[in-house]
Design a protein that fits this description.
heterodimer, A: 292 residues, alpha+beta, five-stranded antiparallel sheet, four-stranded antiparallel sheet, 33% helix, B: 181 residues, Ubiquitin-like (UB roll), DNA polymerase, domain 1, five-stranded mixed sheet
Chain lengths: 292, 181
């Protein structure tokens, strides 16, 4: 690690001032689970770290009016243990979906520290948070010197470790829609070991009508691509089909044909990552059918 | 910067570089060398300690992040007197099993997990053991009556390259049974 100054602002305004003062040399730190790895390898070498741990407003969760506001410094552990969403009555079961996804990220020790906003801002293609937040169609509130703006998920995630955050801005809230109607959710990923990040992942959101036919859906692929990517062709194919009778194998074939993998290494190449997609979408579909 | 962390109930203060990891603070400032530096990238779990009762990988947390908080390490598990075993790798002791009682260790003072690890032979080189014990302590407090699959799931972030895990899982289940009473 290169030397840095460690700042501990107590409020959001103070934190924004600290970040905006010398933005190009400053990095915010929430749980630090990604940042510290980058500091140790000297991939990043900011001269100042601004800790968000003391900024209470960034760790709050609230619900109502068809949406759930999740503070960016809420930890995976607080969500996985059911604390964060305890007081939220989700009509679309989206909190249950996010809890299932987050309880299976990395391992318990990492989940103690890691935060939802930290993973979103890290924008690693292999991470589950960007994929899950895209499939739930989350909005991102971004605070800066000139006020707060809201960015949609498909605009927030720009590429590998690239987001819509400008220098001097902080993610101040993640707004998860909690829509009416019968929504079902599913997520599946494949990594090398249980606690590794995903080589490929697939998330699915489906709204069904009174006859269990798909009215509306989103299918998002992660891991193999630079940013969470919608599979619009497969979504169109799903519309109108009874959810219980969707032929998962056909959906899998279509997804593998539609997605163009952009990332791959010597050990796990693009074609390997593509080959995982049929099984992953089948599992995501099964979860959506079973869990609702 | 000045950092003060309560470790195993004892406040430890130090003037440290901002870059100091919690692992380094525990080992070099507090002098407690039970937590190990394995991979230094939050994968292997050898450095696991409890921070305010929750397990963390101390190699991936800054000491500054733990300032003013409470940490528990493997040294805090046993109650009462324990004896440090001098030089456990010297030739004289290789291949010779010596019961803990013969080494002057009061077995009754061990944490049930430590006792179960000892009885089930849940370690060979011992490098991962401190992390295993703390991960399991937090897990069993939350899930007192786990299945074998749940124990394996709880240990997904702790690597052991000696035992093949079976004896560790057995020890965890034995300790859980005893801790339920």
């Amino acid at each position: 690690m290169r030397p840095f100054e460690y700042l501990t602002p107590a409020g959001l305004e103070e934190a924004l001032e600290a970040v905006a003062e010398r933005p190009e040399e400053t990095a915010p730190i929430a749980g630090g689970q990604s940042l510290l790895l980058e500091l140790k390898s000297r991939e990043r070498a900011p001269a100042r770290l601004v800790s968000l741990a003391g900024v209470e407003a960034l760790g709050a969760v609230s619900g109502g009016h068809g949406e759930i506001r999740v503070g960016p410094t809420v930890t995976y552990r607080a969500i996985a243990d059911g604390e964060a969403f305890a007081a939220i009555a989700s009509r679309s079961a989206v909190t249950g979906f996010l809890t299932r996804v987050i309880a299976n990220i990395a391992d318990r020790a990492v989940r103690t520290m890691a935060t939802v906003g930290g993973a979103a801002c890290q924008a690693e293609p292999a991470f589950d948070i960007p994929v899950a937040l895209t499939v739930v169609d989350a909005g991102f509130e971004v605070a800066g010197a000139s006020g707060t703006r809201r960015v949609a998920a498909h605009e927030f995630f720009r590429g590998v470790k690239q987001t819509a955050l400008e220098q001097g801005e902080l993610l101040s809230a993640i707004v998860v829609p909690d829509p009416a109607g019968s929504w079902r959710w599913g997520f599946a990923k494949q990594g090398m070991r249980a606690h590794d990040a995903a080589l490929s992942s697939v998330a699915l959101a489906v709204r069904v009508d009174g006859e269990s036919r798909v009215e509306c859906c989103r299918i998002v692929v992660g891991g193999a691509v630079k940013r969470p990517s919608r599979a619009y062709g497969c979504e169109t194919w799903l519309i109108g089909r009874p959810i219980g009778e969707v032929e998962a194998e056909k959906l899998g074939e279509r997804l593998a044909a539609e997605v163009v993998p952009e990332l791959g290494g010597a050990r796990f190449g693009r074609e390997y990552r593509r080959s995982l997609l049929p099984a992953l979408v089948r599992r995501a579909l099964e979860e959506a059918r079973d869990e609702g | 910067m000045k950092v003060e962390i309560t470790i195993n109930g004892r406040p430890v203060a130090g003037e440290v570089d901002e870059r100091t990891l919690l692992l380094e603070f525990v080992r070099d400032v507090a002098g407690l060398t039970g937590a190990r530096n394995g991979c230094l990238e939050a994968r292997c779990g050898c450095c696991s300690v409890l921070l305010d009762g929750q397990v963390v990988k101390s190699c991936n947390v800054l000491a500054a992040q733990a300032d003013g908080r409470e940490v528990e390490t493997v040294e805090g598990l046993a109650t009462g007197d324990t004896t440090t075993i001098e030089d456990p790798t010297t030739e004289g002791s290789v291949g010779t099993y010596v019961p803990l009682s013969a080494r002057g260790v009061d077995e009754g003072s061990l944490h049930p997990l430590q006792q179960a690890f000892h009885e089930r032979g849940a370690l060979q080189c011992g490098y991962c053991t401190a992390g295993m014990l703390l991960t399991l302590k937090e897990f069993l407090a939350r899930v007192p009556d786990p299945t074998e699959a749940e124990v394996r799931e709880a240990l997904r972030g702790n690597l052991c390259r000696c035992t093949g895990y079976q004896s560790i899982v057995d020890a965890a289940l034995l300790a859980a049974e005893r801790m339920r009473g």
